[in-house]
Amino acid sequence: MRKALSLLLFAAVLAVLGTGVALADGMLFPTVPQPAQPFSVKYHRVTVTVDNQIAKTHVDQAFVNDSNRTLEGTYLFPIPEGARVRDFAIYEGDKALRGELLPKEKAVAIYEDIVRRQRDPGLLEYVGRDTVRARIFPIPPHSEKRVTVDYAEVIPRDGDLCHYRYPLSTERFSARPLEQVTITVRVQSQVAIKNLYCPSHEVSLRQTGDHDAVVSYEASQVKPATDFDLFYALNDEKVGVTLLSYKEKGERGYWMLLASPTQPAAREVVPKDVVFVLDRTGSMSGEKIEQAKGALQFCLNSLDPHDRFDLVAFNESANSVGDRLLPATAANVRRATAFVRDLRAQGGTDIDQALDQSLRLFADHRRPRYLVFLTDGQPTVRETNTDTIRKHISGLNEGRVRFFVFGVGYDVNAQFLDQLAEENRGLSEYVRPQENLEAKVSRFYGKVSAPVLTDVSLQTSGVKVTDVFPSGALPDLFSGSQTIIVGTYGEAGPATFALNGKRATADGQARTDRYTTTVTLPAQDTRYDFLPVLWASRRIGYLLDQVRLHRNQELVDEIISLSKEFGIMTEFTAFLALEPGVSREEARNRVLPMLGDAARKHDGSWGVGQAQNASRLRSAAAPQAAGGGLGGGGGFAFAYGATPAGGPAPAGSNQAFIDAAGRVQNVANVQNVGRQTFYQQGKVWVDHRVGPKTPQVKIQRLSEAHFQLARASAEARRYLSLGDDVTFFMNNQAIVVSDEGKSKLTTSELKAITG
């Protein structure tokens, strides 16, 4: 029987590839209706191998009967469009369990029947797909049933871009959080792999060469609500440039540029000059100074032999290893290591003198120049006015040395350090008391130790682009990293994006390179619906930085407007989700006093929290991502395409922020469905586009009209799957789904809703 089932499934080759969206994940429901869903998922393990666009996916799930009764279950597996099922097994000793392949017309009735019985519209999202159905009996109380599925598909390629999706969101039907979720994707290709990008989850990216990469995600005690998306480009250029865009008809468009280099040869890494500046004042004593020493040791050992460096340690005075930049020979690294080993934490803090002395070490403007600054305090000796220090250092830095600033603990002046980094073309990061300084600095330096393209700039022609972020100098491009740039556009048409920068050649010489991509920015294309939220995250992060310096009412109004439209909650606008119907004027009157209080707190957990909130949004790489942690993210990780590590794990970064007490807060009653934002008002999920004067069409929940709408429109299915009571905007009207309304729609009524 099992052999017959395997042959049946193996023959299930579906229609021609469309969008490459793979909605294929097993769900288990009780055959006889129960008061509550009795089945939960213990673990969900996915292993994917992609070889030259052929993806083979292995799914391993364990279901648990949480009830005290023996039950029968119906297992459903929606087959990915264009996929071929290779194997399907339900483990019940030696007994082969029956399964059947249902064409999508028959599967619709199965899904609708379960929705009616379970009273959970979430399943409607999978209407319209061929499905494997299996009857599982018996399932004893508190026992497990293991199911495995293997399928293969061709990942479609759009220009250079490939897109793989795994439908992790089906696990929202589990009765309780999953103990373990893992997804491992190994990508291999004859063409070089570039611009690996996951907008949905915080993942670990490991590229062992130009043609081999591993992407992994792992979480525990979670109930996934977001499908797993992975994008990558195939490009043999030295630097691969990929552009994605999104535009609704009649609205402004959004674009994202990804750029990542080929793994460089040893002499194609640009030699750099770097000065490490360490605060060794009394407040750094104990564990902090020991961790700082470990971090510096890692940095020293990571220097390229062609680099030059020095190390400055300061308190009331500043001392360095060589009083000049030293070649990174083995002997000089040993000399610096001994210097670090002998450091003791004592004395006051003279930041101005330390940075002045450090900047004067840089002389050669032909090389990339980096200053890595670690401090846990504020200036207490000689010049203590932070504005004076900042202006002095920025004026002195004519060589445009990039500052990478680490603020350690809560005693730092976060606003001062942020300004210092921004004005000197760098980034700031904060290490909270519970975090490991050595790990954080080491992880950062490991990513920026090998510059491939420096003095990077972006030029565009053709279509006019606006509101580009990062808004200032672009970061250098490092080996194993990528740059993410986002912006908006108005009119559709051909556009050329050119990334310019300096790189080293195989003979060690420097040259200026230009990497371009020419695309047609569309008048309408809604495939990449995460782009508007990504752009809005960066825009809000930029605005938060600006209002910390200038309490401008127009900037506050824009933050409020963007927060409501895109569902991006900040420490100042979270009440917008909790209290529906707040007017802009009322919101402004509440935000302005909060900003005033916040502006006076440059240090402490609140000052550090504000800096981290703004940095996280300003340099966001994946605003929809779930499973990461705010506490250990920070600007460096996002800016260079890495994965945040450490800290608590909010459900989604759009609605999470650090509060005045240093705690991560997550606003649970906001959801993004593609481009649109929904707010929970009581038990009802309401589309942000619906206003008090929007014309309404009322649909009775779980009536024939409800299912007519689900069958007719994929967009409606996504909105209906939010829950029992939902109000969404479609075709210039509000569709209100509740216990009252039309129970059946005529053909003309249905067309009037779906357009």
Radius of gyration, rounded?
28 Å
Return the structural class: alpha+beta
Which stretches are low in confidence, meaning pLDDT under 50 for 5 or more residues running?
1-24, 627-652
Q: How many domains make up the 3D coordinates?
A: 5
Helix content: 25-40%
CATH topology of the largest domain: Immunoglobulin-like
Q: Biggest sheet, strands in spatial order? A: 5-8-3-2-11-14-13
CATH architectural group of the largest domain: Sandwich
Task: Give the helices and strands, then pairings.
Layout: H1 2-10, E1 27-30, E2 39-51, E3 54-65, E4 71-78, E5 84-90, E6 99-102, H2 104-118, E7 131-139, E8 144-154, E9 157-158, E10 161-166, E11 180-188, E12 193-197, E13 204-209, E14 212-219, E15 228-234, E16 239-247, E17 253-261, E18 273-279, H3 287-301, E19 308-314, E20 318-320, E21 326-327, H4 330-341, H5 351-359, E22 369-375, H6 386-396, E23 402-408, H7 414-423, E24 427-431, H8 437-448, E25 451-462, E26 465-469, E27 477-478, E28 483-489, E29 493-504, E30 510-521, H9 531-549, H10 553-566, H11 575-578, H12 584-599, H13 604-618, H14 634-639, E31 656-658, E32 664-666, E33 670-673, E34 676-681, E35 684-687, E36 696-700, H15 704-712, H16 714-720, E37 726-730, E38 733-738, H17 747-754
Parallel strand pairs: 2-11, 18-19, 18-22, 22-23, 23-24, 35-37, 36-38
Antiparallel strand pairs: 1-4, 2-3, 3-8, 4-7, 5-8, 6-7, 9-10, 10-15, 11-14, 12-15, 13-14, 16-17, 17-28, 19-20, 19-21, 25-27, 25-29, 26-28, 29-30, 31-32, 33-34, 34-35, 37-38
Helix pairs in contact: 3-4, 3-8, 5-6, 6-7, 9-10, 9-13, 10-12, 15-16
